[in-house]
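Dear Dr. H.,

I hope your travels went smoothly. While you were away I took the liberty of generating a structure for the chain from your last submission, since the lab meeting agenda had it listed for discussion. I wanted you to have the full record in hand beforehand rather than looking at slides cold. The sequence, exactly as received, is reproduced here:
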Amino acid sequence: MRISLISLGVLAVVSALVLLLRRGLLVSRVRGGSMLPAYRDGDVLLAVRRSLFRRLRAGDVVVCRVPEGFHVPGGGDDPLLVKRVAAVGGEPHPAADEGRVRDGMVHVVGDSADHSLDSNVFGALPEALVVGVVLRRMTGVTRAPQSR
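The corresponding predicted structure, in token form, is as follows:
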């Protein structure tokens, strides 16, 4: 009887951890060259979901949804973008000589500005469109083949 209670306890803890990880973590693949040189096309990234994370800060790499009215070629029904936060609400607007990013908004950019669909194209995003904050590139995961 004692072993059964211990087994049930272990099972409950493991189940809770699996649920937390499934709901708390996100795996996303970089598409295109907008984040070069930090991340290449095909890199697989591990992110923590936004709801579990601290406030966004300039410099964070985030996974975000595409705003309404914009299309990502090859992005499917629910495309996600990987971008770097340039400014958050209340900070100076990086794309203008004056003004600040509105509260509740975030200005995101690609590291390779010439090849990026980002806030310089669609404007600042509502923070609600930020799905997660990148923790790291996953190693041992195969990148998409590089075109030559």
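Two observations you may find useful: The domain at 25-137 is CATH 2.10.109.10 (Umud Fragment, subunit A). The longest helix spans residues 2-24.

With kind regards,
E. W.
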